[in-house]
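Notes, p. 3: input format for complexes.
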Amino acid sequence: MNPIFSALQTSVFEVMSRLANEHRAVNLGQGFPDDPGPEDVRRKAADAVMGGWNQYPPMMGLPELRKATATHFKHWQGLDLDPDAEVMVTSGATEAIAGALMALVSPGDEVVLFEPMYDAYVPLVRRAGGIPKFVTLKPPHFGLSEEALAQAFSPKTRVVLFNNPLNPTATIFSDADLDLLADFCVRHDAVAICDEVWEHVVFDGHRHRPLMNRPGMRERTVKISSAGKIFSLTGWKVGMVMAAPELMRVLAKAHQYITFTTPPNLQAAVAYGLGKEDGYFEGMRADFQRSRDRFAKGLTELGYSVLPSKGTYFLNVDIAPLGESDDVAWCQRLVTGNGVAAIPVSAFYAEGAVRNVVRFCFAKHDATLDSALERLEAAR
Ligand code: GLN
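Output follows (380 residues plus glutamine):
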């Protein structure tokens, strides 16, 4: 058995969802919305299933989805992408990340990672033979610094795996951060794999800026997007990958031997959805922002110390003011004793663990949030 895999724990999201079910807890752990997603997009998928779109689609994705992806990201992010050479559809963003690492990392290559980070990153980097080099981001800003990047980059750096907006911190990297990172990538001739799945879930009027648009990055960026996050349909697992033709050719080789394709009925529905008018995307953001504000206000009134949330489905609470210094133990008590599931943020660190921050998913109906708040009153 591969020792990397036998040493792995079950994903914290799976563990917490299981505990939430066992203890009939309000599940604010794993990030998925209560909202059922746009009815017209779901209807398109159902119609496509019944209309016979059920055999293998082209390996690179349905032409209509590749085109819709290029048009969508031109409109929203000013990217000029050739749908035939620079867009590919994968079975979720996680497949895209795994495939990109398999395609681009050779044994002994160094991969720069920013912690806290999504739990899949390190095992995938290691399995590809990569050596992780961590940049540790610290609360409350979780921003980059030249010193930290200089320590992590070396002549062996091949890839940077960068998540913006950042899960779990709910922060967004500044323009200065993006320019700094772009400069390091260019100087070290590194490829940036950009997990930008939260790009549409940003608040307070923010507009997402992709790393691919920074100077020198167009040819060295793999941009990864997720229909699951764009349409609140997290189980669909439809990812969109964008990269210059030279990179895309090797990414496609990985994809063809991992999943080969992605369900065509879902692809047809996503192609339709990406063309929805601006109001849909703005409305979605406004709804999530309202839920964020409701939950943040409730927590603050209960005396919790809430960290700012600029995007994603999440907001974080600093438990140090409660006299707590073990986020795992606190979350354990919260789910078993108080009936609320949350995620300890230390699960997202490999080296410089922060032990006093807990992540809650607020992408829920008001009644779910209110019920969680009632239970959280007893947990202070
Ligand atoms: N992206 C989701 C989160 O951060 C989890 C996805 C999963 O369960 N693997 O909560």
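Residues 278-301 form the longest helix (24 residues).
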